[in-house]
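TA notes, week 10

Several of you asked for a full example with nothing omitted. So below is the full record: structure tokens for the whole chain, then the designed sequence directly under it. When grading your own attempts, check the secondary structure regions first.
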């Protein structure tokens, strides 16, 4: 049975023509999970499936370039005639409902008609069909999580947004595919509020975790995905690829 990752977007901090922000479609057998809902990813998701048929949505953290299209999806699913039959389970960081669907959001439809609400924490794990999901807390400026997805002995790990951190290395142990952000050109760009990794730091985490393949994602426009991937590949020394919109990778 298939276990694949389709990139719905990898740009940050804003979408460009043909470049959506963070989002992925994870398919494992019959299960389909939308991982991160950055700007533009709801549109790209429709290239691959009817969003009403999603089995779950998982959100790494509440920065807009990873979560804004929860609102877009709500409009589509509530008002767009997509044929939603039952609320879709959403697993998001604490506060996602209040942020997007609180009393001032102005939505006419109750969010519970569209989304089944779940909040994740450091010890969260879940199951969607035969896909097993678990998380770790990563180093970002607000509660943010990395994701490990396991299906029939194969493993995908996604960093979300993070500075280099040991919890992510542990989560990524032995992964077949490690999707890791490489937003920064240099570590000196890190501040108390802006925490990301460089290509070399992504590669170091990949090496430390013993992953089989590294996918570089979430790269600043000023750095560029080609340059970031080349730097990560040189430092990792193993198979290294770029996240490109609408490309599907078997895990
Ligand atoms: Zn972020």
């Amino acid at each position: 049975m298939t276990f694949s990752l389709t990139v719905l977007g990898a740009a940050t901090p804003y979408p460009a023509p043909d470049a959506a922000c963070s989002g992925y479609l994870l398919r494992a057998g019959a299960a389909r999970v939308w991982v991160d809902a950055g700007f533009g990813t709801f549109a790209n998701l429709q290239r691959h499936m009817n969003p009403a048929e999603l089995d779950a949505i998982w959100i790494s953290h509440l920065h807009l370039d990873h979560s804004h299209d929860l609102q877009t999806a709500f409009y589509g699913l509530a008002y767009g005639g997509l044929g939603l039959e039952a609320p879709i389970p959403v697993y998001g960081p604490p506060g996602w409902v209040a942020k997007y669907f609180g009393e001032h959001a102005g939505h006419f439809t109750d969010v519970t008609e569209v989304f089944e609400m779940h909040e994740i924490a450091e010890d969260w794990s879940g199951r969607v069909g035969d896909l097993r999901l678990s998380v770790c807390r990563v180093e970002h400026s607000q509660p943010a999580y990395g994701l490990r997805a396991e299906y029939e002995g194969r493993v995908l790990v996604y960093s979300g947004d993070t500075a280099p951190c040991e919890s992510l290395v542990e989560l990524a142990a032995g992964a077949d595919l490690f999707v890791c952000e490489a937003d920064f050109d240099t570590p000196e760009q890190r501040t108390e509020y802006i925490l990301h990794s460089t290509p070399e730091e992504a590669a170091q985490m990949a090496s430390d975790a013993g992953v089989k393949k590294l996918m570089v994602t979430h790269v600043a426009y000023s750095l560029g995905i080609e340059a970031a991937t080349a730097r990560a590949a040189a430092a990792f020394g193993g198979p290294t690829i770029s996240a490109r919109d609408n490309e599907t990778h078997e895990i």
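Residues 163 and 197 are 5 Å apart (CA to CA). Use that as a sanity check on your answer.
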